[in-house]
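[Structure tokenization] protein backbone as discrete codes

[Encoding] learned vocabulary of local backbone shapes

[Begin record] amino acids and matching fold tokens:

___
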Amino acid sequence: MKSWGAWLGIELSVVSPTEKIVSVVGGFVSIVFLVLISGWSLGPGNATALVASMGASAVLLFAVPHGQLSQPWPVLAGHAFSALIGVACAKWIARPELAAACAVGLAIGVMHQFKCIHPPGGATALTAVMGGKAIHDLGFGFALFPVLTNGLVMVGIAVAFNWLFGWRRYPSALGRPASEALPEPLAGEPSHEQVVAALRSLDSFVDISEDDLLRLCRELTRNGIYDVRAQVASRTTRTWKSWLAGLLASGPPSP
């Protein structure tokens, strides 16, 4: 029977205290800059300048910078598409509760289709519907400013901030040293086609890039931490040895 931790979704975390502190500082710095830039652009106290969903984006960009959900395309396109859908639903669906539900549902579908799933985008779509007159007055311009503008600022800060720390990279493909380039697969190691087939068999979104998944599999195999072939061979050898030992112990069959 599964433990309560498994039911709650509490997973293994091997993140160091240093990495946690860096995430905290990154989130703090990004929101400070976002508030200052938005206030300078529209004036202090303008509630439409700062989209609250950017706080959720800050969690992903600075706590999970290597995750697929945190990359620039999901951040920018996920927020922009969601904002456009939210504005359209607010304009064309009279009942606010139905408009809000349609906005979030359609935003999820569009993000899936355009490979830009970014969970805070759902909050952006909801804000476009439920944000009040100040946001409604912006019309479709809401998607450009403040949403896309805020997203660009967030991504820019994430690139600059994460560059300061050698073990971080953002975007995930930026500045990877040649020594860390993905090696060619050896015999028996997973190929691109096998990874795609395995992911498709799950039929669910997995928040890890293909390169990182392949790298993890190959590191485990090449470092001897987990060699499936060796384990299978070992088990097979033990099985044959046990069978032979049993056969010899029983002696020759009676005539």
Q: What stands out?
A: The chain has two domains: 16-163, 186-193+200-237. Residues 226-238, 250-255 have pLDDT under 50 and may be disordered. The two ends are 51 Å apart (CA to CA). Residues 16-163 form one domain.
